[in-house]
Amino acid sequence: MLGARTRDLGSENQATLAAAAARNGRFYGSAVRIHELQTEWDLREAVLRECWQLVPEFEMNWNQIEPQHGQLSFDRVDALAAFANANQKRLRGHCLIWHLGTPDWAAAILRQRHDWGLVARYFGSVMPRYGDVIQQWEVVNEAILPGARSDGLRESVFLKTFGPDYINRAFYQARTFAPHGQLFINEYGLEYDIPEQRQRRYFMLKLLERLKNAGVPIDGLGLQAHLDLGNGRISQSSIAAFLREVTGMKLAIIVTELDVKESNYIASAQERDRLVADEVRRYLDVLLSMPYVLGVTTWGLSDRHSWLEVTPEDYARFPHAWTHGDGPGLNRGLPFDSSMRPKPMYYALRSALWHGRPEPRRLRTSGR
After folding, report:
1. SS3 of 234, please?
2. Domain 3-355 in CATH: superfamily?
3. Which contiguous run of DSSP H or E holds residue 341?
4. Which 3 state secondary structure label does DSSP give 91?
5. 180-212 residue pLDDT tens
6. 10-to-16, 25, 68, 345, 360 alpha-carbon distances in Å
7. Whole-prediction pTM
């Protein structure tokens, strides 16, 4: 899959993130928005230099492609696919089924008619169209939410309409349109040794076990990895134990949405960057020591476009800290700052990719 990307890598301190990942048979990528690539030359250059895989941040959501019933608009995704093809990049399909990405009109019809054909038609409109540039698909996104049900599944229009087997049906449906693609389930909140995330890991393992035992064509798990310094340090031992269970099922792993939510906004920029980099290093040291970890994607490259914001609650935790009308600036949880300068997180990420366990083995996809 990586091909010529493994050649002429040079030394670690000369390598791009893509080259550091390719050294061990992996990929590095980033979530992007096409209009930002078209209008911001410095971001575009960094993406072209550092990334092998690109992920549409939201343009491939169902409610973006078909906001009105029967009125499909592929302009932005087509433009991103053309950009990827022109620059020898790959896209990842993000995402097919997501409770927050479902159009209101579709949710209403699903509740009324219980018509799976609506889902099938959407899959059939999207997946073959991008089969030449997308090898990996996030079929179901964020299916877990502990607390409401004994199986840990999130209450959604898909669960209410089709029952727990909607996940099975989604993967079988995706396989018909991507017979040789890699099909993933994607989830957040699996990193920390706190009660909710311990439950999340438990329910995810139970779900994966059920899908595997039923012969569902699933190839791997996407770990969103939205790290949060407010949760304390990640538990490397808990993550390692969880990953051993996943890879023991012969499932591949991708880190799909890596970034870091800060906690201490009154520290210096240097200290804030160190804390972010240290958390990324701790996380990836565990991840990249495991087999079947195919790659790492951050949820953006630059702090200027992070979805993570300094919230009113963050300000309230530090009363009187910014008395001159200033503030902490942007959340500093991505590899580049707002001026596209690499930060300590960049170097922690590059080092982890460069020194990670080589990944020469490839799991055969469920479609082959």
Report:
1. coil
2. Glycosidases (3.20.20.80)
3. none
4. strand
5. 999 999 999 999 999 999 999 999 999 999 999
6. 10, 15, 50, 21, 20
7. 0.95
